[in-house]
Amino acid sequence: MLETEALRKVYKKQVAVDDVSLYLKQGESVGLLGPNGAGKSTFISMIATLMKPTSGIVTWNGQDVIKNPNIIRPTLGVVPQEIALYKELSAYENVKFFGKIYRLKGKQLEQRIQEVLKLVGLEDRQKELVKNYSGGMQRRINIAVALLHNPDIIIMDEPTVGIDPQSRHYILEMVKTLNEEQGMTVLYTSHYMEEVERLCDRIYIMDHGKVIATGTKDELTSILSSEETIHLETDQSSITFEEALKEQSSVLKVTEWEKGLKLIVPKNSRKLADIFQLAEQQQISINSVNIEVPSLEDVFLHLTGRRLRD
Q1: How many domains would you assign to the chain?
Q2: Is residue 94 part of a domain?
Q3: Is 309 a domain residue?
Q4: What is the pTM of this model?
Q5: Which CATH number is 230's domain given?
């Protein structure tokens, strides 16, 4: 349905997107995961014809989008990361304004306005000025605008950034409904691991402008299938203890984690005795130990050497 091949964007000497190839099948929900600055927004701006790539190919149902942007524009909905609304207008007036840009009119326009306002849960507050809405409500109207013309595919660029948990949950459930019940194709960008795990069939992980891994959740976590994760909760932090753990030959990775440390070690390595011995030597009290199979967060850490939200 949508495919990019070696898509690249260079600003002067800075490479923002570096030869990214990606595809979406009809009805899929695909996640584009990466920290801030990974190149996600630049990448989707090129897909959405808002920005021309330095090089590479974008095709929509086999047709060249770069040469003819109007191939994809009528059937594409885009939810930008920044709120793109007129805050001195009401929610209804905003949606109607953008509906006219989509060339909707008359009864069809009025019907779609009420349908999308109901979908985002704001039909009862549609006459209120957007400037009086919470950040989460504004983001929901942002989504309503993108859905107004019944697109075949919707691109959502970090739609839950900086909003309250209730609105975040509402948006995630809405995206799930659009994809699973209405069959809409979704490209969802985020730096929240749990969001793409919850919503997406396949995941692309981006870092420094490149795709560094792709696959289903199970395929990605299988990268560390021979490892396990040990969470240590300690009574205090200690750089000396952390460095001592890193020097252990069978400890593959050590990072700070909430109240302690996270270690990635080979499965069945029986490292606990050594860990407790090191802790005793460093006068560190271990309050709890939890051993788990690696998560997507662990995979990202393994591939990039840093946590997703660093």
Answers
A1: 2
A2: yes
A3: no
A4: 0.79
A5: 3.30.70.920
